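Appendix B. Extra example for self-study. Work through it before the problem class; the solution is given directly after the inputs so you can check yourself.
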Amino acid sequence: MSNERLDVRKTYKLLINGAFPRSESGRSYEVTSSAGAFLGNVSWASRKDVREAVIAARAALPKWSGATAYNRGQVLYRIAEMMESRRDEFAAYVAASESLNERESQSVVNETIDRIVWYAGWTDKVAQVLGGTNPVAGPFFNFSIPTPTGVIGVLSPQDSSLLGFVSSVLPALAVGNTVVAVSSEKRPIPAVLLGEITATADVPAGVLNILSGVASELGPVLATHEDVDGLDLTGAGDLAGTLAADAATSIKRVFRPTALDLDWSVSPGTRRLRAFVETSTVWHTVGQ
Amino acid sequence: MSELQHQSWSRLNDLEYAPAPESASLARLRDSYGLFIDGKFSDPGSHSQFVTLNPATEKPLATVAAGSSADVSRAVISARRAYDQVWSHMPGKERAKYLFRIARLIQERARELAVVETLDNGKPIRESRDVDIPLAAAHFFYYAGWADKLDHAGYGPNPQPLGVAGQIIPWNFPLLMAAWKLAPALAAGNTCVLKPAETTPLSALILAEILQQADLPPGVVNIVTGDGATGAALVSHPGIDKVAFTGSTEVGRRIQRELAPAGTHLTLELGGKGANIVFEDAPIDQAIEGIIDGIFFNQGHVCCAGSRLLVQESVASEVQRRLIRRVEQLRVGDPMDKNTDVGAINSAEQLARINELVDAGVAEGATRYSNSCDVPDAGYWFTPTVFTEVSQTHRIAREEIFGPVLSVLTFRTPEEAVAKANNTQYGLACGVWSEKGSRTLWVAERLRAGVIWSNTYNKFDPTSPFGGVRESGFGREGGRHGLEAYLNV
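Solution. Structure tokens for the complete assembly:
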């Protein structure tokens, strides 16, 4: 008989409203490495989990969108700090999920941390870059500012389980939206781990909700949900057209990535920052 | 109401104004118009045709071609050829000069255009002369200057156009909406197929003459008149790279759904149910004028109209009293008369829609007050109307009426004002009336609307982005932001 210590395995759960529940459906599904090794039984989120997450995201919106841009930047930066301190764990999960060697997976984690820092730094720049004053022909001080669209459903990429996930979710958060994200179906664990560190990064409950599950099952719920304001279809695959059509029911903003948007290694520019902001224009009368 | 007040009302009502009519002959309309495709007007006889009426008299103004799907195809092919061979290669500074020319030609033909607009639409000549036409010229002038500065618009170096834009515009500001669509599209390097509204095609056809006078290369702009079927053919045409639509949320939703599978670029400017919020410290005289302008400008045929008045309880009775007094003084009638405040409803169909919702308002228990003036026998008319005792669940507080009908609600606290203002699926525009700047900005931060007017209403400017949130659509028209709708960024 071996007297080696038996390790304590982790349960991979959802992130809804700052808590880590299992799916209300009681379902889970088996996740394996790309080589076929068992990695874990991951919560299999249901339609009802989506609805719970949307309620949480809606409730969290006033506080997050009303927070100062400086504060949002610090919270997002804190995610980068937490990831840096657990980088080997992230690298191991990315390596197993994406069939990468150690050097490659460390490189992905580096890119991811840097990507989080990039977006953390954007929070207090977007208003200046996307907004401004407008020289109207009349006695008015007229200005336009970017305001968050609201609750955003993100079908995160199926291939890039960490860098792609962060690159889809962070821009929506940086501009003040709250997010319900569906992780990669076959590679959910790096996103689940990211959810765990947001709890120690002071991300307020409900601001980022992460559901592991099947995009083709959860996507239609997000696309038709009246209280979801925007939809990122990066991980929707063949369903993107159908989901974009469903989104028309409540005139949602829809982000459909181009090939360039899917190259996670290049600097992302402002496309995703602009995807889920509204331009609010105020005409303020000038007079004595 | 005191006896004295009543007497002064009566005297005001008795005041006679001498008519000051503009001359309809200034319009110089032709009897019939073909389609404007590839730089030329087609033979009207080669199309089935429809009549466009003067809504103030119900008399025909001209016959106009009903563009078929084959016509739409010809227009799209012409636009594609012009894009591939001419417009997308032309240096921005040359494109700019065409747009400057168009702006100048609109100014030169401003009086004619104002008369045409009023005849075809029914809006007061004072408004077409002072608002629609000057703003249309200004819009071309503004975007002309962007054509050779796109590198500096904030979308990175050398931003590219989308290609051929299909643009569908409404009947409430016919020429101005054409300018809002065409000017940024052309400045960004796209070519266009424009579908004017069925009931107001004429000013766009005058604009086509202007494009000829400007020597704009053939096919850069094509104008295909017709009804909803023509618009549907344009939206579904596979040669279109981008659709820009201004109109109802219902149609916008259909278009978004239809274009989704192909992922065609789309911007939508849809309906609204704007709240005009009046706080107790508002400058009341100005607020009354702003409320009037917010809902009765252009007969209320304005997507951003301030169709809900939210007034703080402490001043509600005073505001309502003064508002109704002011409504009674509005002059309703001949749009061609320079004294007219409120003109004709654009169509029998729209009049029926207004009547239906007003009947619903009465049936649901709101209190109706309407201006008591006589209106002409012929034409489509609806006198300015105010509903009080309106609750948030009433149809007149929820649905876009698109007519001269105001629903008055009250509130106690700023929080309640914001909650009520946001209690709609729309989010186009709101007004805030207060002398306290900090409160105005606090409210503005919380309103879910694309445009917020503080101590003013219904102001427009080419430099100022306009557009909605939520079910009022997406994308902006005007300003630097308006370029984004026509660039592949």
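Self-check: DSSP finds 16 helices and 18 strands in chain B. If your reasoning did not lead you there, revisit section 3.
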